[in-house]
Design brief:
alpha/beta; globular; 38% helix; 10 helices
């Protein structure tokens, strides 16, 4: 004979079933599993956009971005610089975004915006400011080939001097916590590595498919370096193993990742190489963000 409490439980279950329009489970049956509600997706985008989507991403960004003119100690045309601020209460580390050989493009500005989304002050200088028609920079040049020619005309010392001016400006911003790192792509990747030898105050440097410095320059590197390289990029990769061996001999931090099947410029060309470029970006970008958080927070 069932107890009164058992009969009451059965009656209550039946009433609830009628109220909810479903059939109650038989007495003694295991309760139905509750379907887990997936957590909300993190705000923002997981990767920088591809080149073709860069302008659209910038136009819908909620973050504050602005152009500023950074003065050179030697005088002359100031460095036109794109600065994007993160949405956070605490002061933030600074990341200098060093342009490709294609100048301060919409894509580089969109990468800066992505870095700000990750919680850092992103600062992207136009290193050919004053060298274009009428004393302009990237925006004043009509073709990509002309931009490339102007960028390649920068000497290493000139590029470092311009980066120093922007670095000194950025770390003194009221919203900066005083820590800084660089990230560069292609031509800018090589500059990012070299700048780690020229700027002792740097807290980290990230290289995307940029050639490595020669041993004498590596000896002056003080900041840890993170390198991302495409598997199908023999020209650049020929410089990686010698630099890796020398950095190890010197006892310096140089972490290398090579992404098989990816091509040069994989972060900008996400659609390329039958998915290999995107696969590389999906590994490289989180590693980049983690590297910055470890060294700039």
């Amino acid at each position: 004979m069932r107890s009164f409490s058992t009969l009451s439980a059965v009656l209550l279950a039946s009433l609830l079933s009628l109220a909810c329009g479903s059939q109650a489970p038989p007495p003694g049956a295991a309760p139905a599993a509750v379907e887990a509600v997936p957590p909300p997706a993190p705000p923002g985008e997981p990767l920088p956009p591809s080149e073709q989507d860069a302008l659209a991403r910038l136009e819908k960004s909620p973050r504050h971005g602005e152009y500023v003119d950074v003065k050179l100690p030697s005088g002359g045309t100031p460095i036109r610089t794109w600065v994007v601020y993160p949405e956070r209460k605490a002061k933030a580390g600074v990341v200098l975004v060093i342009m490709e050989v294609y100048g301060l493009s919409d894509w580089i500005r969109a990468v800066a915006d992505q870095i700000a989304q990750e919680g850092f002050i992103a600062v992207a200088p136009d290193l050919i400011s004053g060298k274009g028609p009428g004393g302009g920079g990237t925006e004043s040049v009509s073709t990509r080939d002309e931009v490339v020619a102007l960028v390649r005309g920068l000497t290493p010392d000139e590029a470092a001097a311009r980066l120093n001016a922007v670095h000194d400006y950025a770390v003194r911003l009221p919203a900066s916590n005083g820590k800084s790192a660089t990230v560069g792509f292609c031509w800018g990747g090589a500059r990012s590595f070299s700048y780690a030898a020229a700027q002792p105050a740097l807290d980290g440097a990230v290289v995307y498919y940029g050639s490595s410095p020669e041993p004498p320059e590596l000896a002056r590197v003080t900041a840890p370096v993170l390198g991302h390289y495409a598997g199908d990029d023999a020209r650049v990769n020929a410089t990686v193993a010698p630099a890796e061996a020398e950095m190890k001999r010197l006892g310096k931090f140089y972490e290398v990742h090579v992404y098989e099947g990816a091509g040069h410029g994989f972060l900008r060309q996400l659609e390329g190489r039958e998915g290999a470029n995107r696969a590389a970006a999906e590994k490289a970008w989180p590693r980049t963000v983690s590297f910055f958080r470890e060294r700039l927070e």
